[in-house]
Amino acid sequence: MVNMVKQILSILTVAGQASIMVLLLALILKNNSVWRLVSRHALAAVFIISLIAILGSSFYSEVAGYEPCKLCWFQRILMYPQSVLYLVAFLSKKKDVFLYTLPLSIIGVVIASYHYLLQRGVSPLTPCGTVGYSVSCSTNFFMEYGYITIPMQSLTAFVILTLLAVAALVKIKSK
Fold it and tell me: What is this structure's pTM?
């Protein structure tokens, strides 16, 4: 079961990365119809993405038995409240939630990027070793498709949340 869930989450990560490329290409080509479509469905999308992220991280620690490191905890701290905020915003149809969640997602991108670089062997600016309550941040529990690890999955989710928030905020400002 653990391998099946890892595979599903890795496939979702690749799909998310393809979505990122489509969004960036639409931005570069100034394709407003793509951005209008994205901003129209942004609340539902960000709720689903953040929910998958928290369910995935909970699965890894509670079912698969992967002990979260210090950087994993920081990423969870940034992701978990977003799911609740997005649910409330979706139910109340208030898109101003992106003003509050965008900074969380951007900080998440920075931490997940740094975490991924640590796993890939880039020398740390600040060490993230075992501090008595977690495994080392460079511990790699698995690698799918030659590059997907837990921090890469987190990074992908945070980047998508960031892009969708920007799309929704741009639409809000254009009204």
Answer: 0.89
